[in-house]
Amino acid sequence: MQMEFCVPCLLGLEGLIAEELREMDAGNVRAENGRVLFSGDEALLARANIRCRYAERIQVLVGSFEAHSFEELFQGTKALPWELWIGKTDRFPVKGYSLNSDLFSVSDCQSIIKKAVVERLKTKYRIPWFEETGALYQLQFSIMKNVVTLCIDTSGRGLHKRGYRPAANAAPLKETLAAALCNISRLRPYHQLYDPMCGSGTILIEGALMALHIAPGLGRSFTAEEWRQVPPEIWERERKAAAALRKDNDEFHAYGFDIDPAAVQVAEENARRAGVADYVTFAVGDIRDFTPQTEKATVIVNPPYGERLLDVQAAERLYRVMGQRFPQMRGRSYTVITADEDFERYFGRKADKRRKLYNGMIRCQAFMYFK
Asked: What is the CATH number of domain 3-153?
């Protein structure tokens, strides 16, 4: 069955997601602000969940329409073919948000959408009420500038939750953003990757998963595995195909350092859970002593900046140290993600390239040095 999909994502990652979806043979891929749309079948639904590195979740796009009143919201929702998805006993809770729209009460919108779906299903199934004890079909709505978009989530837990990081240090970097940093830093399977302030090891683990072509969703489950529309054999086939993409190599290795011994221990445990422990080496180390152990090095770091862990003055001192420990040198590149607009001034050099990204709700810049 052909269907439309909506992929919500962190701002700044739309292009990366569109590229990886095209590589998965997705059709009609369109990158928009904060989301990517595409079309495909049940196999692509499973494939995208298992393989996507940068997406937050995969949603089936049921429909979209304009609404300025609760009556228009009710009628627009009721007109959509919910019976194609939701069965007589299935669960279908509703959640979502509204921005810059006439309908601004999220709780009222939830209630009206739920009522409209129930009324539609009552007509189709000819039953007076729904027990909602079966498979989960989480309804997601967004209302942006009076345009309502209604989706059903297929992922369950966000796709950034790979399953290897049950514990994390303070202010952890999302796995999807860490993977994106590896991508924009042009990490290759023959590179040596370094993070001198590695925390829970997320950047290094995501870099290893990418270098080894390990699909990030292989170790977890998804809500749509309970759906009758996606048979178990499709999930089994897509998992086998994803596992077959793995390419072990002796050229890639990652090195992580942190001043906190407890963080290093957590990072080692996470790498073991991710199945990449043989490709990542962790050690206790201070940024002031950092020197890559190999001639060529791709350095990616998410330093603690003022809004997260350090006060502004401490962060500025840290940036100066980084400027000293990250010298211009042939074969080395550096990517630093921070919310501090004055980073370059304290680091001591203008970046060769800057890229706007979001770490959760914090607007950041990726400062890249490669010349």
From this structure: 3.30.2130.30
